[in-house]
Amino acid sequence: MNPKIEKWTKYEFWSFWLFYAPLTPWFIYKIIKSGAPAYFCSANPGIKWGGFMNYSKIDLINQIDKQYIPKTFFYSSYNLEQFPLDFPFIIKPNIGERGIGVELIRNKFDFKNYLALHDNSDLILQEYINYPLEFGVFYVRLPKETKGKIISITAKNFLTIIGDGKHSLKELIENNLRAFYRKEYLFDRYKNDLNLILGKGQELMIEPIGNHNRGTTFLDGTNLKTSILEDKIDTIVQKINGFFYGRIDLKAKNLEDFQNGKFVILEINGANSEATHIYDPNFNLIKAYKEVLKHLNYQYKIAIQNHELGEQWTDWKLLAKEIFSRYKS
């Protein structure tokens, strides 16, 4: 099937706004019921806007015990004279979402190109953790309860091209739905290898960033949850000030380590976190919406309990002003 046609037959490739538009009546109902248009910001009162937008990733990373995170450096401004890490390493904006601006830097040439294309301020440099498994663990804790829990897990398969012994890398990218919409980026990234013909069954991982917008396949891994994993996540994130709802992105050497709470945390996401396991190709649209509503109902309950415990509602006019300012720029 033509990738342009196939995109519209699978909701996992729809735009964010198209997918969430049918939930508008639900959001309106919750706003009316709570009396707070920005109630969701109260899900994580310790984070700017609750982690809905424009919040600092480094502030969250710095609250995690160093044994659970990669070597991480933050720069309010950056120049090419600073190399705190060996290549390769990850670079990303301190304030960002959906994988935008996240890159694996393999050498000085990559680094120079990155700084030429991106603002060199407010950047995070992070040791590249070359573990084969990456997960998004969705955590919630009701403020009136002492223990949190995992309500979903997303397993990630990085964008990989499989050769057939006939077609070039360029042709394989053009015919791969997950690669097709990033083909210009990938053509540039692999410009010296586009005529390469992979052997039949030969695999080439062409995108090491585990984000859906970068071609990663998201799978429902909720059945992988263990009590050990849940306890470890709960212990770690309860040290983050005012954090009750969000997704923890992490890597592990193998499945056994993951389930036994041995992992490296890449970042923490707040109120804007998606229940990304819904993009499992085996899900249908109805099941996906049921899962989304389950997660959003937790968000609502958490916000209400925080308010009952004394947290003030966020001034929606201030939030609206910041949203307008962001999209205006």
Describe the protein.
By secondary structure, this protein is α+β, with helices and mostly antiparallel strands. It folds into three domains: 31-70 and 131-158 and 210-329, D-amino Acid Aminotransferase, Chain A, domain 1 (2-Layer Sandwich), CATH 3.30.470; 71-128, ATP-grasp fold, A domain (Dna Ligase, domain 1, 2-Layer Sandwich); 161-207, no CATH class. The protein has twelve helices and eleven strands. It has helices spanning 3-9, 16-20, 24-34, 57-61, 108-117, 169-174, 177-180, 183-189, 227-237, 255-259, 285-308, 316-328, and strands at 72-77, 89-93, 103-105, 121-127, 133-140, 149-157, 159-162, 203-207, 217-220, 245-252, 264-269. A five-stranded antiparallel beta sheet has the order 9-6-5-10-11. It has a four-stranded antiparallel beta sheet with strand order 1-4-2-3, covered by helices on one side. The protein is globular. The two termini are 38 Å apart. 32% of the residues are buried.
Labels describing this entry:
12 helices, 3 domains, globular, four-stranded antiparallel sheet, Dna Ligase, domain 1, D-amino Acid Aminotransferase, Chain A, domain 1, 329 residues, alpha+beta
